C-alpha cells in the first residue's frame, strides 16, 4: 500500500469538504458495505446464484470518484460492480432483485450480478470478461467527444485486467484521439489468487500510460478524500480537452474473489491488519467524530437508516416474481427481426 | 432471538458439502467475520465466516458429516444474554444422508456388424477401448484429467502446462491439483490474465519444439485468443507446406455451469469443429477424458479439448492401467437399441442416456452413441446405426443455428437417405443468450425431456 496522500489529521476535511458532504460519503460507503454483506448472506441461502463478487473494502474508490463527477458523466466496470451501481445512484432494490434473478431487477433478471446496466444513471455495465470494459469506456468517451459535450467517462478495471492486451491498445487510441476518459485501476493487489507481484514486473500501473503520453498518479484508495481530490484533478484534465488520465487507486478486497474462493493465497492476518488499520469507512467515521462534525448518535442514526434500506432491498428482491417465461425470447434483437431458429 | 445458521452455498454448482470442522464450539462468543467452520465443497475446502455476532448456542451438524444440503440448518446462534434453551426451540437438525457421487457404470463398447457390400458401407471400428477383464477403479472426471496430464508430463519432459491460476492456486477448478508440487514452476506456469498473449506464446513454444498444454479458465475467455488458435495454431502447418505446425492442447471447461449468465455459459463445440487444422475433443466419461487427453497431448496437431464444469465432479469407472489412450475419431456406443439412434457427446450424453432409460419404459429402444471427438467425427458408427434404426436425434448444448447436429443431419441425408424413415431432429440449446434467472436458464438449456419428445416425433409415437 502506498503512503496516504494526506494522513488522517491533514485531510482537508474541514477545508474543501463540508460536514454534510463528509457525512454523505460515510453514508454511501456504509450502504455499499451493508448491501454487500446482505448479498453474501442471500448467496449463502441460495437466493443468489452463479458468480457473485463483493466490493467490501473498496468502497472509498467509487464514492470518492462519484464525488468528482457531474450529471452526464458515464461509468463502466467489471463484474465487481455492485458498489459502482449504488454509488452512482441506482436503486438498491433493483440491484438486489437482479442479484436474485427477478423481474424487477435492472436487467429483468436476465443479466445477474455481473451484467447490470442503467441508461438513466449512465452506468454501462457490469462486464464479465476481464478488461472488455476498457475499450468500451474509451468508446463511450469517443461518443461524448463526437457530440461535442464535456462529459467524462470513468472506465474502472482491476490490477489483473491491467495486463490484458486490449488495455494497451486502448491507451494508444485514447491519447491519439484525446478522449475524455479516466482510466481507473482499482489495484486491490490480487487478481483472483494471483498477487500483483506474481503477474507483472511493472507494478506501477499509473506509469503505464507514460509511453503513450498519458499522465497518471497513484492514489490512496482507503482515503475517500484523497480519491475525490485525485478524481477532481483527472476530471478537470479530461473536461478541458487534454485527453485521458490514469488513476491507480490502491485498495484492498476483504472478501474472497467470488463466493467460491477458498482464499489460500493470503493470510487472514493480512486481511485483518488491513481491516483494523486502514478501513476506509472507519477512517471517515473518525474524521467525523474527531472533527466534531457528527456525534455517535448521528452516526447510529445513519447506520439504522442504512440497515432499513438494505433490509427493504432484500425483502423486495425475494418478493419480486421470477421473470415471465416469454422473456426468454425478448431483447435478442432491437427490432422485431425474426429469430433464425 | 435465536437464529439458525444454514449450510452456505459456496460455489455456483454446490448443492451439498461436508462439514469438515467446527472452529467454534458451543458457548463460544462469535463476532462477525470469525471463521465458524471449514466446509468442503466439490472443489475446495472453504472457510465459513459468521455474518452476525452472538454466541454459538448449539451445533446441529457434527463435524465430519458429509452430504449436508445447502440451506439445512447447521447451528443456532444466540444473541448476547440469551439462554441456551432458546437454541433447543430451533428446529430439529438435518440428518446427513450420505449421498456419494452418482456413479455411472461404463459399458464395454458394443460390436456392430458390417456385412453389406457397396460403395458407402459404413465400417465402424468395434474394437474394445481396453482389453476385456481390465481392472477398473472409480474416479471423477477431475481426477482423470489431472492423472492424464501428470502421466504425460512424466513421459515427455517437453510437455508443460500454462494458464491462469493453474499452479499455486491448483487450478480455478482444481484440475491441476498437485502438478506444481510434482513438476515445479518451470513446467506448471501461472500466467497473467492475457489470453490472447499466452495462447500465442503457446503457439510459438509449440513451433519451437515444446508440447504446451494451454488451460483456459473457461472457454468463454478463449474468444480473446481466437485469432491465435485459428489463424496461427490451426493454419500454420498448411501455410508452411507441412514444415511446421503447433502440436499442442488448448483445454478447459466449456458450456454452461449454473447461473453464470450469458458471457460465461457458451458451448463452443460447433465453432471449433468447423475449423480445418484443429482436432476437437468433447468427452463425457472420466475414462474417455483420460484416454483422450493423453492422445491429445501426444497428437502432432493443435487439439481443442472441451471439458465441462458440471461433469468434473461425476464419477465413472476408469481402467486401472499404467498407460492407455483412446484414439480420435472412434465413437462409443453406450447402449444398443433398434428403434432410434441418439447421437451426442460431452454433457449432452447425460441427457441422452437419461432419455434412453425413460424411453425404454415406454418400449422404445434407443441406441446411444457418444461421438467423443467432433473432429474427426466417426461417421461410420453413426451411419451403421442409422441403417439399423432408420431414425436419428442429435443432442448438444450449443446454439441451434450452424450446430454440429445440422452438419450430422446433412451427412446422414447424403449418405443414408434411403435408410431414413423420418427427418433427423437436432435437439440443442435455445437460440438465445443464456439468461441468468433460474427459471429462464432452465428453459434455455437442453433437457432429457426435450430428447424424449424428439424421439417420440421421429418414431411417430
Ligand atoms: C478474459 C477473462 N479471463 C479470465 C476471466 C476469469 N476471471 C474473472 S475475474 C479474474 C481476476 C481479475 O482480477 P482483477 O482484474 O484484479 O479484478 P478484481 O477481481 O480484483 O476486481 C479472472 C481471472 C475472465 N472473466 N475473463
Ligand atoms: Mg484485483
Element layout with pairings:
The complex is a heterodimer of chains A (341) and B (461).
Chain A: H1 19-44, H2 59-66, E1 74-76, H3 82-87, H4 92-99, H5 133-147, E2 153-158, H6 165-176, E3 181-187, E4 190-191, E5 194-195, H7 196-199, E6 216-220, H8 224-239, E7 245-250, H9 268-278, H10 280-290, H11 296-319
Parallel strand pairs in A: 1-2, 2-3, 3-7, 6-7
Antiparallel strand pairs in A: 4-5
Helix pairs in contact in A: 1-2, 1-10, 1-11, 2-8, 4-11, 5-6
Chain B: E1 3-6, E2 16-22, E3 29-30, E4 35-40, E5 45-49, E6 54-59, E7 65-69, E8 73-78, H1 85-89, E9 103-104, E10 136-140, H2 141-155, E11 159-163, H3 179-183, E12 188-190, H4 195-207, E13 211-215, H5 226-234, H6 236-239, E14 248-253, H7 269-273, E15 279-281, H8 286-298, E16 302-307, H9 309-312, E17 315-319, E18 332-335, E19 340-344, H10 348-361, E20 366-370, E21 373-375, H11 379-389, E22 392-395, H12 404-416, E23 425-427, H13 438-444, H14 448-458
Parallel strand pairs in B: 9-17, 11-12, 11-13, 13-14, 14-16, 15-16, 19-20, 19-22, 22-23
Antiparallel strand pairs in B: 1-8, 2-4, 2-7, 3-6, 4-5, 6-8, 10-17, 15-21, 18-20
Helix pairs in contact in B: 2-8, 4-5, 10-14, 11-12
Thiamine diphosphate sits between chains A (78, 80, 128-130, 158-161, 186, 188, 190-192, 257) and B (164, 193, 195, 217, 221, 224).
InterPro entries (chain B): 2-oxoA_DH_lipoyl-BS (IPR003016), Biotin_lipoyl (IPR000089), PDHB_mito-type (IPR027110), Single_hybrid_motif (IPR011053), THDP-binding (IPR029061), Transketo_C/PFOR_II (IPR009014), Transketolase-like_Pyr-bd (IPR005475), Transketolase_C (IPR033248)
EC number (chain B): 1.2.4.1
Catalytic activity (chain B): N(6)-[(R)-lipoyl]-L-lysyl-[protein] + pyruvate + H(+) = N(6)-[(R)-S(8)-acetyldihydrolipoyl]-L-lysyl-[protein] + CO2
Amino acid at each position: 500500500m502506498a503512503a496516504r496522500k494526506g494522513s488522517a489529521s491533514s485531510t482537508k476535511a474541514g477545508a474543501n469538504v463540508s460536514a454534510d458532504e463528509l457525512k454523505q460519503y460515510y453514508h454511501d460507503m456504509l450502504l455499499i458495505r451493508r448491501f454487500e454483506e446482505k448479498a453474501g448472506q442471500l448467496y449463502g441461502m441460495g437466493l443468489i446464484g452463479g458468480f457473485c463478487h463483493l466490493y467490501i473494502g473498496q468502497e472509498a474508490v467509487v464514492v470518492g470518484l462519484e464525488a468528482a463527477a457531474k450529471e452526464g458523466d458515464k461509468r463502466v466496470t467489471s463484474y465487481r460492480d455492485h458498489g459502482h451501481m449504488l454509488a452512482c445512484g441506482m436503486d438498491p432494490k433493483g440491484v438486489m432483485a437482479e442479484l436474485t434473478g427477478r423481474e424487477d431487477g435492472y436487467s429483468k433478471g436476465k443479466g445477474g450480478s455481473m451484467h447490470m446496466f442503467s441508461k438513466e444513471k449512465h452506468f454501462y455495465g457490469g462486464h464479465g470478461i476481464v478488461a472488455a470494459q476498457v475499450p468500451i469506456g474509451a468508446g463511450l468517451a469517443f461518443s461524448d467527444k463526437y457530440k461535442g459535450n464535456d462529459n467524462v467517462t470513468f472506465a474502472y478495471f482491476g490490477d489483473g485486467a491491467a495486463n490484458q492486451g486490449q488495455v494497451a491498445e486502448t491507451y494508444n487510441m485514447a491519447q491519439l484521439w484525446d478522449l475524455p476518459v479516466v482510466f481507473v485501476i482499482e489495484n486491490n493487489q490480487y487478481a483472483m489468487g494471483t498477487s500483483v507481484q506474481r503477474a507483472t514486473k511493472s507494478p506501477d500501473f499509473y506509469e503505464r500510460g507514460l509511453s503513450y503520453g498519458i499522465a497518471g498518479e497513484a492514489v490512496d484508495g482507503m482515503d475517500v478524500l484523497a480519491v475525490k481530490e485525485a478524481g477532481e484533478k483527472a476530471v478537470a484534465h479530461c473536461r478541458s480537452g487534454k485527453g485521458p488520465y490514469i488513476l491507480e487507486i490502491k485498495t484492498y478486497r476483504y472478501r474472497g474473489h467470488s463466493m467460491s474462493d477458498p482464499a489460500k493465497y493470503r493470510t487472514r492476518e493480512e486481511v485483518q491488519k488491513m481491516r483494523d488499520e486502514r478501513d476506509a469507512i472507519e477512517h471517515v467515521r473518525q474524521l467525523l467524530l474527531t472533527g466534531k462534525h457528527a456525534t455517535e448518535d448521528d452516526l447510529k442514526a445513519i447506520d439504522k437508516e442504512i440497515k432499513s434500506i438494505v433490509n427493504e432491498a432484500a425483502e423486495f428482491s425475494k418478493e419480486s416474481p421470477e421473470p415471465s417465461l416469454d422473456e426468454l425470447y425478448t431483447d435478442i434483437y432491437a427490432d422485431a427481426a425474426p429469430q433464425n431458429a | 432471538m435465536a437464529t439458525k445458521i444454514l449450510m452456505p452455498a459456496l460455489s455456483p454448482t454446490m448443492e451439498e458439502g461436508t462439514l469438515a470442522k467446527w472452529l467454534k464450539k458451543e458457548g463460544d462468543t462469535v463476532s462477525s467475520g470469525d471463521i465458524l467452520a471449514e466446509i468442503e465443497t466439490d472443489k475446495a475446502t472453504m472457510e465459513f465466516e459468521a455474518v452476525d455476532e452472538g454466541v454459538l448456542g448449539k451445533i446441529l451438524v457434527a463435524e465430519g458429516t458429509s452430504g449436508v444440503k445447502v440451506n439445512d440448518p447447521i447451528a443456532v446462534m444466540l444473541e448476547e444474554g440469551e439462554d441456551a434453551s432458546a437454541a433447543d426451540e430451533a428446529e430439529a437438525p438435518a440428518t446427513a444422508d450420505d449421498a456419494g457421487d452418482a456413479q455411472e457404470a461404463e459399458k464395454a463398447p458394443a460390436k456392430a456388424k458390417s456385412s453389406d457390400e457397396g460403395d458407402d458401407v459404413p465400417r465402424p471400428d468395434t474394437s474394445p477401448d481396453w482389453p476385456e477383464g481390465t481392472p477398473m477403479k472409480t474416479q471423477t472426471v477431475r481426477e482423470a484429467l489431472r492423472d492424464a496430464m501428470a502421466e504425460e508430463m512424466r513421459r515427455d519432459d517437453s510437455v508443460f502446462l500454462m494458464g491462469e491460476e493453474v499452479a499455486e492456486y491448483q487450478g480455478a477448478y482444481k484440475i491441476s491439483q498437485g502438478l506444481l508440487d510434482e513438476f515445479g514452476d518451470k513446467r506448471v506456469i501461472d500466467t497473467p490474465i492475457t489470453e490472447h498473449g499466452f495462447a500465442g506464446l503457446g503457439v510459438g513454444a509449440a513451433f519451437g519444439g515444446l508440447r504446451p498444454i494451454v488451460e483456459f479458465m473457461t472457454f468463454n475467455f478463449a474468444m480473446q485468443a481466437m485469432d491465435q488458435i485459428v489463424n496461427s495454431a490451426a493454419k500454420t502447418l498448411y501455410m508452411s507446406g507441412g514444415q511446421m505446425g503447433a502440436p499442442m492442447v488448448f483445454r478447459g471447461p466449456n458450456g454452461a455451469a449454473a447461473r453464470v449468465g450469458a458471457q460465461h455459459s457458451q458451448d463452443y463445440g460447433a465453432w471449433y469443429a468447423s475449423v480445418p487444422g484443429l482436432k476437437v475433443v468433447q468427452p463425457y466419461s472420466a475414462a474417455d477424458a483420460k484416454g483422450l487427453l493423453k492422445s491429445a497431448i501426444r497428437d502432432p496437431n493443435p487439439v481443442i479439448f472441451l471439458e465441462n464444469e458440471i461433469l468434473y465432479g461425476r464419477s465413472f469407472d476408469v481402467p486401472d492401467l499404467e498407460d492407455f489412450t483412446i484414439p480420435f475419431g472412434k465413437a462409443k456406443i453406450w447402449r444398443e437399441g433398434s428403434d432410434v439412434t441418439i447421437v451426442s457427446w460431452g454433457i449432452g450424453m447425460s441427457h441422452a442416456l437419461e432419455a434412453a432409460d425413460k424411453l425404454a419404459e415406454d418400449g422404445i429402444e434407443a441406441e446411444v452413441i457418444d461421438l467423443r471427438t467432433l473432429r474427426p467425427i466417426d461417421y461410420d458408427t453413426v451411419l451403421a446405426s442409422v441403417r439399423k434404426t432408420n431414425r436419428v436425434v442429435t443432442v448438444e448444448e450449443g446454439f441451434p443455428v450452424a450446430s454440429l447436429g445440422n452438419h450430422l443431419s446433412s451427412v446422414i441425408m447424403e449418405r443414408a437417405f434411403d435408410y431414413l424413415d423420418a427427418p433427423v431432429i437436432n435437439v440443442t440449446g435455445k437460440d438465445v443468450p443464456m439468461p441468468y434467472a433460474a427459471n429462464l436458464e432452465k428453459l434455455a438449456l437442453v433437457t432429457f425431456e426435450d430428447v424424449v419428445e424428439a424421439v417420440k416425433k421421429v418414431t411417430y409415437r
